[in-house]
Amino acid sequence: MFGTPLNRRKWLQQSACGFGSLAASAMLNDQAVFASNQVLHHRAHAKRIIFLFMQGGVSQVDSFDYKPILAKRHGDKLPFDDARQLAKTGKRTEHHLMQSPWQFRQYGSCGQWVSDLFPETAQHVDDLCMIHGMHTEGVAHGPATLFLHCGATNFIRPSMGSWVYYGLGAENENLPGFVSIAPSIGNGGPRNYGSAFLPPQFQGTRVGSLTAPQLSIDNLGRSDLPRQTQMQQVDFVNRLNRQQLDRRAISDEELEATIASHELAWRMQQFAPEVLDLERESAHTLQAYGIDDPKTRAYGQRCLLARRLCEAGVRFIQVTHGDNSANPAWDQHSNIPKHADHAAAVDKPIAALLSDLKQRGLLDETIVWWGSEFGRTPYSQENGTGRDHNPRGFTVWLAGGGFKSGFRHGETDEFGFQSINGRVHMHDLHATLLHQLGLDHKRLVFEHAGRQFRLTDIHGQVIHDVVS
Fold it and tell me: Please, where are the H alpha helices in 169-277?
């Protein structure tokens, strides 16, 4: 079991002398944040994760899960175990099959089928591990999104990024270990990058939002005060906080987290602006990510920042493509052709990220995880041009981090509705991702309210077939 991070008050009491300087604060932070780096459960295959979150539910049968029978039987009416209708009536419902508006083609040495939605990503199929047998909990966006991030829909649980940060610590003392780039305020909002009952210092740091084009961290710097004055202020506040800790008989995690936050914020003021400054990149790199094109600029900036954070040692980086409207991106109930707009916004940046990581020698030690909270149905909805939510069978892909490249695992039925072979539950995916980071999902636990909690609850198994 992982314990609470080092108690600063006890550390000071046991030291030969007390400290009142920022240098001492940095030493304390090193001990607290890096302490868990020495407790990997087994050999790690990766150091970090970049999660490319496609908010709203990408249609697997229109992207990576080719089902030619949909074109042959387009319009046929068949009964399906529709999750929403089953909840309402308890009966199977008949629906019209709908063919994909996009052509599928085979790519790479592996011959993976990819639709014309993702022509740029398709060039990298020999580096991808496709998982076609995914299934999950929750048929609505809110529960399914929380389940994707936190492994549960009930209670308030830590997000996966927080679990990773808690288990591995940080690689860079000057940056947080978990960053969420442009997160949505809907479908769980901050809970999707929150630490819940884990020590507060392990929550995600938000960079920008889906409504703000500027990728920045709030209140990162102060231009109105000289650096020496700011240093004196930080030193004074830290000494006051440590005096408060010394007076307390028991550990105060919130106060300790506040101290750690202040210290990290000070160091970030010196280091983070350089990492966040995308203009330091070459014109060629900016063009490769599509930052010169209004259609791809927003997600291109996010993906490029993810690479820079990856290089700087951040453990878990989430990059969201979505919006804050009532109907999230990719959620086309009556207009599946709208998928083309979203794919055009992300395809080139994602391909550039894969190329960039590989070229810099980072892909082997970085897991790139692409996916949504669920997939979509193979049959039409409403006016016959949309698809409903489908948690029973969908696709995610993984690259780098020791996963098999050019590999397919699992499958859905002939229509792409339900996973039938090589089924992978979201708990299994979480367990496998943790495994590649050197963490045993059954041993990465935290005691809260008299119970030991973990990301996968009492479920999950590592899918060894997908790892090299």
Answer: 227-247, 253-276
Query: What is the pLDDT of the chain when averaged over all its residues?
Result: 87
Secondary structure string (H, E, C) spanning 7-44: CHHHHHHHCCCCCCCHHHHHHHHHHHHHHHHHCCCCCC
pTM: 0.87
What are the sequence ranges of the domains in the chain?
A: 43-63+105-226+260-373+384-466
- pLDDT confidence of residue 238: 73
Sign of the Cα pseudo-torsion (322, 327, 333, 337, in order): negative
Q: How far apart are CA 342 and CA 331, in angstroms?
A: 10
Q: What are phi and psi of 94, to 5 degrees?
A: -90, 140
Q: Which candidate, 136, 81, 109, 102, places its Cα nearest to that of 393?
A: 136
CB 270 within 8 A of CB 264: no
Tens of pLDDT, residue by residue over 245-257, are: 777 755 666 777 7
Closest CA to 340 of 33, 97, 118: 118
* Run of H or E including 190: none
pLDDT of residue 344: 97
3-state per-residue secondary structure call for 133-168: EEECCCCCHHHHHHHHHHCCCCCCCCCHHHHHHHHH
How would you class 2 by CB atoms within 10 Å of its CB: exposed for 0-12, middle for 13-18, buried for 19 or more? middle
In this predicted structure, what is the pLDDT of residue 210? 78
How many C-alpha atoms does 72 have within 13 Å on its Cβ side?
6
Positive or negative CA dihedral for 416, 421, 422, 428?
positive
pLDDT > 90? residue 267: no
- Please report which helix (H) or strand (E) contains residue 186, including its range: none
pLDDT tens digits for range 412-425: 999 999 999 999 99
pLDDT at residue 251, as a whole number: 62
Identity of residue 425? H
Name, in order, each residue with C-beta under 8 angstroms of 132's C-beta and a sequence gap of 6 or more. Answer: 60, 64, 65, 393, 395, 408, 409, 410, 411, 412, 419, 422
Amino acid found at 263: E
pLDDT digits (tens, 9 = 90+) for 90-128: 778 899 999 999 999 999 999 999 999 999 999 999 999
Q: From CA 312, how far away is CA 27, in angstroms rounded?
A: 20
Question: In angstroms, how far is CA 270 from the centroid of its own chain?
Answer: 26
- Which one is predicted more confidently, 217 or 425? 425
CATH of the domain spanning 43-63+105-226+260-373+384-466, picked from 3.90.220, 3.40.720, 3.30.450, 1.10.3470:
3.40.720
